[in-house]
Amino acid sequence: MRYVKHATLAMLLMAGPGLAETHDVKMYNRSENGAMIYEPSYLRIAPGDTVRFLSTQPGHNAATIDGMIPPGAKPFKSRINEDFSVTLSVPGAYGIKCSPHYAMGMVMLIDVGGRMDADLPPDLPRRASERFRQILDARPDA
Ligand SMILES: [Cu+2]
User: Fold this and answer.
1) Domain for residue 112, yes or no?
2) Predicted TM-score (pTM) of this structure
3) Which of this chain's residues are annotated to bind Cu cation (predicted)?
4) Residue 77 sits in which domain range?
5) Beta strands 63-64; 49-54: pairing state
6) C-alpha of residue 99 to centroid of ligand 1, in Å
7) Rounded to the nearest whole angstrom, what is the distance from the C-alpha of residue 54 to the centroid of ligand 1?
8) Cis-peptide into 70, omega within 30 deg
9) Which of 10, 15, 97, 142 could form a disulfide linkage to 102, CB 3.0–4.6 angstroms apart?
10) d(C-alpha 119, C-alpha 142), whole Å
11) Is 93 a domain residue?
């Protein structure tokens, strides 16, 4: 009986909003890691966490890439030069692009809920595909 009570409390705590985190992503024309780049370019977060895209340098946005969000997840697209927050609850891999700099390879990957192997669609711009491969290879447990 006592165990059940504690398990219920633990479940309530895990489901509560108090433990959800916010992760900042800065959008740069140039950082020490390259040009047209999200910092960081890879995030692993828990379902229900929020990602906040910061317009650190002007000219960028954050939008989901068609075919690179999990089934049931909602696409989003922020406005250029806008700080934008989105809460991601559906587990899976989210490919994010900067609309004006997609062809220049300004993309990032958000893994919600654990290690997900992102399938790269075959029709990505070449430089976006290259950066995704770098991101995938550089993951902590790649
Ligand atoms: Cu950009």
Assistant:
1) yes
2) 0.85
3) 60, 98, 101, 106
4) 22-138
5) unpaired
6) 7
7) 12
8) no
9) 97
10) 15
11) yes
